[in-house]
Amino acid sequence: MNAFEYAPAPESRAVVDIAPSYGLFIDGEFVDAADGKAFKTLSPASEEVLSEVAQAGAEDVDRAVKAARRAFEKWSALPGAERAKYLFRIARIIQERSRELAVLESLDNGKPIRESRDFDLPTVAAHFFYYAGWADKLDHAGYGADPRPLGVAGQVIPWNFPLLMLAWKVAPALACGNTVVLKPAETTPLSALFFADVCRQAGLPQGVVNIVTGDGSTGAELVAHPGIDKVAFTGSTEVGKAIARTVAGTRKKLTLELGGKAANIVFEDAPIDQAVEGIVTGIFFNQGHVCCAGSRLLVQESIQDELLEALKRRMSTLRVGDPLDKNTDIGAINSAEQLARITALAEAGEAEGAERWAPSCELPDTGYWFAPTLFTGVTQAHRVAREEIFGPVLSVLTFRTPAEAVEKANNTPYGLSAGIWTEKGSRILWMADRLRAGVVWANTFNKFDPASPFGGYKESGFGREGGRHGLEAYLDV
Amino acid sequence: MTGSYARRYAHLVTMPTTVPAYGNEAAERLAPMADVTASDAALRRFLHGLPGVDAVGLQARAATLGTRSIKTTAKAYAIDLAISMIDLTTLEGADTPGKVRALCAKGVHPDPTDQTVPQVAAICVYPDMVATAKAALAGSGIHVASVATAFPAGRAALPVKLADTRDAVAAGADEIDMVIDRGAFLSGRYMSVFEEIKAVKEACRRADGTAAHLKVIFETGELQTYDNVRRVSWLAMLAGADFIKTSTGKVSVNATPPVTLLMLEAVRDFAAATGVQVGVKPAGGIRTTKDAIKYLVMVNETAGDAWMTPDWFRFGASSLLNDLLMQRQKLSTGRYSGPDYVTVD
Questions:
Q1: Can you tell me the distance from the alpha carbon of B247 to that of B232, in angstroms, rounded to the nearest whole number?
Q2: What pLDDT is stored for residue B17 in this prediction?
Q3: Considering A11, A257, A459, A472, which one is annotated as catalytic?
Q4: Which of B1, B60, B67 is closest, CB to CB, to A306?
Q5: Where does B3-12+30-333 sit in CATH, by number?
Q6: What value of ipTM does the predicted structure carry?
Q7: Does domain A13-258+457-474 sit in CATH 3.40.605.10?
Q8: Which segments in chain B show pLDDT lower than 70?
Q9: CATH level 3 topology of A263-442
Q10: ∠ CA(A114), CA(A119), CA(A122), 5° rounding?
Q11: Of chain B residues 254-273, which have a CB less than 8 A from chain A?
């Protein structure tokens, strides 16, 4: 029989023009690092060098913070409606340039174009639109009359959703009247630098947004700089703890959005086909590089066999490969370092006796790849059930009763998100009351909206991003 | 899903391979399921025990599959496959022998300028046009499908529906497209719907022991909920449907991607549970090549290879064929022709 093979359907790279090198965006200008240092950024799918980017040192961070401080006075004094105009303009430019930015994001990050095009970019624009709407309504946000901004925000973001995490940080900060110095992740600096261009296109006053690229040392300089009033970080719990130690005892306000080990709980009366989709979305969306990924599947023991059979069948249809191919479901792992971490944890899972399964799929020869993987026979005592893997690896555990499901779901140092699958509404409410997780999804997973606050319990961090609650992190309240 | 049924019955059924619903073996495969259709109460418990359908999730999955980008060689393959899966249909009060013969000619040579275009799967007509179609298609291998059982409303007494079916079969119909009694289904009389399908299946038998294939039309636009669609799919398959079909094309909501996806899940699960393969036919509202390809992607990624043939998947359509032909010409010549370069029906 002649199988229906999908021919390659690559999105064109021609829509994006990447310069051979980029400087730091400080005070409205692109400038080289003071000491001239630079680093290369790769496409994780091909290991091709995309561009060379300046490595900001202490002196550069200082210049950026001072520029933001100078800009703060005028920016914070603008009426909210005026700040809103800039944010609306940025949102519209992002929409207009969304194809270019989506291709860029997939090139630099390795995520499939289907996701950067259909999820990342629309959500980025929506976030700016949403907070543009708040800028002149802060009096009504529930923080008293005329709440004041904090000042200069130092923001450090991760590589999993480079532009979206930028939007989550920059949009509420600017809406509230703060100015920002943002450090994108070392492996994914390009979309933030293109965002700098968007700011210029929108006529945003100089110094309101500054972007300093670099590795962890740049982030450490920024967080420790005495001239900033607020630190916002999204990333690993380990780095988050280090930042909390740095900031302790200073006047700086802090919000942290850290790791997770979310339970996706499937009851025997769940809509099974949709639950399978939700499990796949929960752990394989963005190669599992999602802090709220549903990396622990808790399935009621009575339906374990049929659910796993359906899940394996579905996983066999996942298309792993070129991120720019419009039919790719799973793209490249973001870096060699992350690939090594996922590989090591998966090996630990096997060594501890969990059963490993992956569909047969051909992985490209160059670049960083990891096949979608399932571990069954996992218990609470296994490392793959406790540690955040941040990759396309799902650990399957079972439970017998709702109480046991809650107990196991909560038995983690993290508490970012959880999912419940059941056709019984009362059980959803009962579970949601008891799960210690910042977000609880019912009969869906990994759904985001700018109007909905997002954030964690326990070692998943504190503070909320998104919604009215997200304003609090950038207001002096 | 429904694997619990698969497991429960696995010890009763040995399944080396799946068998077609229209063969003699299907009845043996379904025999172990007899207890679920033993009484109205048992059938109700079974159908209501099927996993629920989350509407938002189902629609999201159908939409995601709709974003697949099918290009070049894959597109050429899909277009020819789609043409070969068409039940080219005319179901009008104004149908005449001339109109039916014209449609048959088109079914045999969809593009008179290009003999490499495959012929369609079947010509679908009202029962009184079966003989005309049969004569026009003689020797072509194209099936004649006839709607029956008081199509499209199905509001007639059972003897009338059976007579309607027998007439069509006697006139030479290879396939019968029956409508279910939606009123009975919506009022919860599942057993009545079940018995009626069984009776029509029986009426499809010919004197020589062969039988016309039976497609069962649900009119999903009238059943409305996805839970109903899953239940009626299982009900019809248990009753012996060879194909399950979405719609008559005569109501405002016809085939939709989510409904078709759900029916594809049902045939997949039914084959896993019983070893019997049943086909799927979306009908009504599928007019463009782009739409047809989206459906083929759904078949490919839900039911799989075994359903990617005209034996197991059909499009109930009329205007779709011309769009497929125009896209086919575009692929081979690199430019669009126009409606004057394909034949009117």
A1: 13
A2: 85
A3: A257
A4: B1
A5: 3.20.20.70
A6: 0.94
A7: yes
A8: 1-16
A9: Aldehyde Dehydrogenase; Chain A, domain 2 (3.40.309)
A10: 120
A11: 265
